[in-house]
Fold each of these.
Amino acid sequence: MIMPVNARTAEHPALEIQMRHSLHLIIVCLALVLTGIAANAQSADATDEVIVRLQKEALNSDLAWNLLAALTSEVGPRMAGSEADSIAVKWAVDTMHSLGFDRVWTEPVSFPRWRRISENAQLLTPSKQNLVITALGGSPSTGGPLEGELIQFATLEALEAAASEVVQGKIVFLSSRMRKTREGTGYGETVMNRSRGPYVAARKGAMALLIRSVGTDTDRLPHTGMISGSQPGAPVPSAALSNPDADNLMILLSHQAPVRVRLDLDVGFEGSATSYNVVGEFDGSADLDQRVLLGAHLDSWDLGTGAVDDGAGVALVLAAARLVADLPLRPRHGTRVVLYANEEQGVYGGISYAKLHEKDLHEYLIGAESDLGADRIYRFKTLILPQAEPVIDLLAMHLKSLGIERDNAEPAGGGADVGQMRKVGLPVIDLNQDASRYFDLHHTANDTLDKVNPDNLRQNLAAWVTLLYITANSTVAFGPVDRSE
Amino acid sequence: MIMPVNARTAEHPALEIQMRHSLHLIIVCLALVLTGIAANAQSADATDEVIVRLQKEALNSDLAWNLLAALTSEVGPRMAGSEADSIAVKWAVDTMHSLGFDRVWTEPVSFPRWRRISENAQLLTPSKQNLVITALGGSPSTGGPLEGELIQFATLEALEAAASEVVQGKIVFLSSRMRKTREGTGYGETVMNRSRGPYVAARKGAMALLIRSVGTDTDRLPHTGMISGSQPGAPVPSAALSNPDADNLMILLSHQAPVRVRLDLDVGFEGSATSYNVVGEFDGSADLDQRVLLGAHLDSWDLGTGAVDDGAGVALVLAAARLVADLPLRPRHGTRVVLYANEEQGVYGGISYAKLHEKDLHEYLIGAESDLGADRIYRFKTLILPQAEPVIDLLAMHLKSLGIERDNAEPAGGGADVGQMRKVGLPVIDLNQDASRYFDLHHTANDTLDKVNPDNLRQNLAAWVTLLYITANSTVAFGPVDRSE
């Protein structure tokens, strides 16, 4: 149930006077009930009207686009721990100030610094050809060029099942291809090649690992991404091939003749770095101790300008917070926007934030994150207490007009960063974009501004202002929900 | 008019005997006329039947695909004058032999050797970012890194109109974007940025040139290609930016603050090289001194594996020649397939071939070239004598079933290489592919096998066997046509 604070209905000065006349109690009670019904009806209408107006404004707004264009052009790629990462933090602080946030601050986040200095690979036999590769994040260096024969496995399971003798001293090639789906489910099916492959290859005695990029495109642009930080042992030097390069190797391997490759990765961990979660708040219209938490991550990989991952999310949560704060009457609760540090290399920002703020869980009404690009949002999921269902019904009604349906098949996860607070009890809502195209671009040099469709970005913004306005106006609590991994 | 040589109708042994009986002359004449009509009717039907069968075979054939897969995987990129170019020549000779060509030989082609050793560019201000560029073919080296402020012009005309004082010492950025059309006409509208831009920039005192890639994609993959070899003066060091990089610069330039760039191209001409036109012939069924000339170029740029430019053309003309030669009865005329050397850097193979073979013009029936990828062929054009129109009518009829219409709006050009023989009088036919997608891939690292659609390649092959069979069976001459530039 939504009860917006409305200047005309929040107070009834006639009420106290009438209450003194006990003679008219029944009439007064009747009047009060009728007034209440009328007031409720009016405020529901007013709420709907505000939301429709907000959505219309979002659907005509260039704010998210302009923020995204600024971040991707002025800062560009901003890999965690790099010089550009510091520039991004400064950009985020300055931008929050210029957007009029009531409070802006930063919270330090430390992590091991991983560097990509150079990376090269060549096919040696049957002919010399450059292979388009990129080192996986967290990969060690090859320590100069290494050469070896490829041994191909369709899946990580096949590699795990192989005898060490056949793998020993070779370069493992994991060839499984990611499926393209609207839900992005193909990612979970193949990402273990990247996250666990380097460790499994090491255990089998391989000298290095090449994986087919975990991506759905056919571009000559490999997909980077982090290898797991929580596996036993040490990983082998590991890189991803572009899909066309992997296809080419598959043809050559089908000839049953040895395929030899040279790999030279000058990459690796070197000391530690500190970046910052950038936090900004808009107050609500009531003096309440709970706020809505909106999140996105500020860092990107180094290959592209991080427009879809996650510049779009940064732009969307900033713009949504600003549009809602600009209303003649803000919603009751405030908004906290967190632009997380170093999501890409291990969710450092999100984990650090949850560690620091777990004790403040009661200060959050609900959380949501944008980190799946900015193609059209087509569904939303929730993880809330049943008592808040009426608020979600209102949300569902208003998201429907944007082509977004509620999906009850599974609970919301809250995203990589905000999801860390979900693990300790924060209720969350997920707005899910159509991910069909996302994994064409994800973690590649092709992640640039031109890949964001301005109309889709506006549809996202309309969904975010709807979510923010409705939740921030709630008079019922959404959580806390059960702690969960 | 087509008159296929048919064992059953070419000779009439009964004829001479009957001719001796003058008494039966009228009857004989009548019989002869009737036999002739029947024979003609039968041969037209037989021709149609052969063509329909050939097309069906082509539409089910994997031959072109297999040839293309072999060339792009076993040889890969094959820039003229490189080690891989020699391997490609050997591959072509071996492949022609294994396809059963009756004669195979090579003809040397010499040209200046241009080398790409390394190429890098960075944005320096307002922030440090890598720029994805590739040197233009024929560009000189920067002789180490050079740094300068960008000065942007929308078109080459605008640069030409600019005062030297404002261009002097700057890095010119030509930003016009190529239009995407089915006919590929956008190429001619923007390619002067690449071909003439480096000279115009030099005349204006610029230190270097960056152009927006002459390409229609939005990938982070720049398009190389040759600068003109016939302009007065010397060109400045020149490179192409990927479209997203050009977009990014345009946003930064709109801020009215200086944009500085570092460019480091280690490229340039170094001595000369010799490659080879690879020539193969299949004889016809009659002992005639004219043959059909089919051409494609064997070299590619170095960035991709040259699948669409022009591996597909190589595979198509080889496969078409083989399928037609495999018929129980070959067409009357033979086929000469020429796989030209170094088209990319200045049509060296085509020009060399025409110089050597101009004197043999009478030995060619007609010519045709495949060098626009392998998306669906949708139209054909001709440059022939009017007397050959009936043959073209038959061709039109049979191409129609493949979705290909005759276009009479302009004459055929014969392509870059075969067109050199057209200039001295060779009649030609153009089979035009839908070029909408071609300039997404043209001269980029993305020109790889996966970009070729196997069904479209088969449609191309069906068109090529139709063209070859019908023209090689002609009893009328298609030319010579007027000499023209």
Amino acid sequence: MLLELKEGTNYLDKQILIDRLENMGFRVVESDANILAVIGGVDSLVVTEAFSELPNVARVLPLTSNFKLASRQTKPSNTIIKVKDVAIGGEELFIIAGPCSIESREQLEACALVAKANGAQALRGGAYKPRTSPYEFQGLGVSGLELIAEVASKHGLLAVSEVMDASQIEIAAKYLDIIQIGARNMQNYALLTELGKIKTPVLLKRGFAATYHELLMAAEYIMLAGNPNVILCERGIRSIETYTRNTLDLNAIPALQELTHLPVIADPSHGTGVRSLVLPMARAAVAAGAHGILVEMHPDPDKSISDAKQTISFATFADLAKQVKNIKNALLL
Amino acid sequence: MLLELKEGTNYLDKQILIDRLENMGFRVVESDANILAVIGGVDSLVVTEAFSELPNVARVLPLTSNFKLASRQTKPSNTIIKVKDVAIGGEELFIIAGPCSIESREQLEACALVAKANGAQALRGGAYKPRTSPYEFQGLGVSGLELIAEVASKHGLLAVSEVMDASQIEIAAKYLDIIQIGARNMQNYALLTELGKIKTPVLLKRGFAATYHELLMAAEYIMLAGNPNVILCERGIRSIETYTRNTLDLNAIPALQELTHLPVIADPSHGTGVRSLVLPMARAAVAAGAHGILVEMHPDPDKSISDAKQTISFATFADLAKQVKNIKNALLL
Amino acid sequence: MLLELKEGTNYLDKQILIDRLENMGFRVVESDANILAVIGGVDSLVVTEAFSELPNVARVLPLTSNFKLASRQTKPSNTIIKVKDVAIGGEELFIIAGPCSIESREQLEACALVAKANGAQALRGGAYKPRTSPYEFQGLGVSGLELIAEVASKHGLLAVSEVMDASQIEIAAKYLDIIQIGARNMQNYALLTELGKIKTPVLLKRGFAATYHELLMAAEYIMLAGNPNVILCERGIRSIETYTRNTLDLNAIPALQELTHLPVIADPSHGTGVRSLVLPMARAAVAAGAHGILVEMHPDPDKSISDAKQTISFATFADLAKQVKNIKNALLL
Amino acid sequence: MLLELKEGTNYLDKQILIDRLENMGFRVVESDANILAVIGGVDSLVVTEAFSELPNVARVLPLTSNFKLASRQTKPSNTIIKVKDVAIGGEELFIIAGPCSIESREQLEACALVAKANGAQALRGGAYKPRTSPYEFQGLGVSGLELIAEVASKHGLLAVSEVMDASQIEIAAKYLDIIQIGARNMQNYALLTELGKIKTPVLLKRGFAATYHELLMAAEYIMLAGNPNVILCERGIRSIETYTRNTLDLNAIPALQELTHLPVIADPSHGTGVRSLVLPMARAAVAAGAHGILVEMHPDPDKSISDAKQTISFATFADLAKQVKNIKNALLL
């Protein structure tokens, strides 16, 4: 439920109220305005009206969404996640670029150089790769994490990579600025709960057949466990179309932004699975209002060890970066 | 198959060759360059190599797509469909706006005024409505067609409306500038074949579970029957998401443009089914490269007799028209 | 709404009441028990309570489903459609078998012989073929209808074939015992309405992305237009699976039987698109409670002019017919 | 690749060949017949023809599926998994029944009694529950595992329950006869690999948008890591239908049996999500050839703490058990 405080309630009185609620066993989140969100699965067990008798409470409002901490109802203003000097979720477009898999220092250096030169703020690269087949390249593991941390830092970029299991979180948090959770693990609740115990921002990708609601509930798992820094990422869903690998669902961008205050970005590389579609769909994502985009590029796309079909060249990335900025500027006219 | 003519083949020799092929029973389409496309289901029955012995033929190339007339292989340059003074498929953005159903002269007049004032070129409105339930409003029929023809003409707009059966084509062709075929009839082959017998441009909507290939084969039915003026329209597919009515698949825009020379537009109204998503998704469609958009608006959206949930107000339409033009301009930078 | 009549209301009083309601502009359907269903889109316009004051009306009950004539609420007992000496929808399993396309008298004769010998009651074969490509075989047309009528009659089988357009109904009704509407035309409302004007039973196939509700609304179009003889057919939906052509949704069998009194059959040939799966899925359909099955067979399946991949041999059909009867018998234990 | 041995190759020569191959770094699996499967991601790196020169090798055959250990090509005969006195994958129908969540000893005892009395061989019950919302009941954890182990053992039933994270495997393997992996974790590769390190049979549920191929690749992860005891379970996929919670895809039963030698069972409870559909779909699954079924039941279904809508009563379960056995017997006629 949401508690609207009386006008003029001062900082101290607010803290006293929060303490009291927490002593009663509730989790309390301060919302933008003079509103406290009281969380904890208690909605069906307590008489919400009784809360109106607490000091300084003007009104008790129901919290109607199942996701509470992630809901825009709880926090009307956009959440801006600050990582080093980068602000994610605000006016500046957040661009993550890099190879699908980390293959070598040379490959990663080349990508970092191009990423930085074209205005990207983050370098991505897979160290642990979720592969459909156990016979395919599974990633460089920890040495990949070390490499991306070093190369990203050298070029003034944030390091972004995926973890697939709770056992990888500790080491990943040491090396990465943002930890990615892939589509296949979106409902790996044990992993989500562990991510809630650190503060490193989590880039949470939508499962390829997950609804918006389920994506938000997955974010809620992380937030409820203690980590408020969740970035949502639309990366395409399975549909009846076979020309593309996935169907990038851009409806998700404005729809999620209605439902949540968290940053929402798009991945047109996985979202299409087709190299020639990455650039136009990156533009479309930004036009739909995405706070950022994530794209896969490679010095020699055809030789990419994974996802070659959807990986773009450096030249295409330079075009893409320029065009998405033009679109972003057009939104301000 | 495609016949590449020898350099310097003159107009007369080309005509002689075309006549000869047609006398052999083939359908011949002149492609942009010095290329003739030979069509007719004959590919598996004739020895294509033998055609290289015809006069002025330099090379015989296979026509690899199943859709032939609609294929960009057959005709590399974009088809621009001219209707009165409007060119569809070229540089200018084509905007169709109007109510879901034609309800009254007043309603339609109000829409036409707003459409024109904001730069739309066409007025839409349903006279025959495909309704899931036989108990729902089925449209005004012929009187609706008369009304939209009159109002559109008065305001210098093209008239666009849907037909659902071959028996409605003759009267529709009399009143309309563009005939729409709805998603449910995309594979109504009897209807498609009849539309091939007129020259009125056809706005062909993608079925809600049809692949790009099937949409192009449906266009092929119309083209093979004699009508080359087909405009394709992405209008959302069914997916596992339930927050939106449909999932507007913007991958379709650049993907179809790779496959075909026909104009490709998007319908963010049906494609989302949610009023608040129409504007951002219209922007996204244009950013993806759509040649135009189709949107439903109403003087009083909540009172719209059909599809009220996805119908936008005049004020929103004015914003939308301005914003999509800003996006279109950004594509030219 | 449903009117429950007072106990002991006699035939004459009931007729008087029906006449009175019809004179008021309503459509009235007699339900099994002492119940009249009052249909006609009037539910939102009339005060239903007022009907309780009519003579012999004991109670007024709401009709909660959107499909009214097709609803089991309106008619609790199963509808059994009698065609010649065959009863469809009752205890006896209804088996339709034959080639995808009618190719020749020899082919059809061979199929009829095998169908009859193995206990099938109906012979199917396509005369008008809905093909994705205009370059593919489109069927023999009227001469195909003549052929199937003659061959079916000779072997004591019902003739079943598809129509694709209202213009084909008159001739089809002359030759066929059951008219099939294919998945692509399930929401061709003009066609459905025309089928309502005849009495020939209609085999209505579920669209490949249609919900149960939409299938029942399509049946409602036919029934409301005057033809109560509708047989529903589950034939597979599109899903993310690509190993099969379609995903036969057997949930549909018991689910539809909850919702409607109409007969429900299954087509494991289109529902799988894979020859080896037809037999086990035919068994499964019957075990799920289907009133019948429709299967495609051919004297030489690999040479079938259409749908060869899903067409079974005569030997497999003989096995299938035996096995589905064993399953049907097991349901009675 | 597959090595077909020369006729008459004796046991010793075969072992010498296997040792030699293993010393070369390959993994070797003995297939039914005189065939060795050589596994290990080596296919693209070695010249397969060279293997024909090894002693006793008659022919080298390509292994065409991506899943190797799970492929029926590698092992043509059905795998029968023996757990205590139960054989899974053979002629006897394997029935798993029990509550969705373990709630109390009384509840579990009641279920065990009914399960045993009606011929089920295994008792299921969730101790760790994957819930979409973090605010919902998450299961009793280890004490739930202790309870089900004790109650199952007392009644001569196998204990089946789900784990969600690698950290739960050790304790689960101590208490359970079969470890279930849920649909959301089907592609949790870290978890699958850990399950490969134990020998407890794994009941692997198909992801709700996973293809057959992906399910088999997930099984391959477990098998390649060392655990050959994998039971596949179809439990419904997401489709456009909303009347049911999921669409039980029974095509999967015969299709998977073509592709793999592993046992394949079906879960009509999750596969429908609708109580009234569980019984007919259980029959259909057995008629399609399933080696077993898994159903959720509860002493008081409406009070079930989770999945109440799809949970059947004891009386319905008794009917179901009887009817599926009748169907199973009908398959032998």
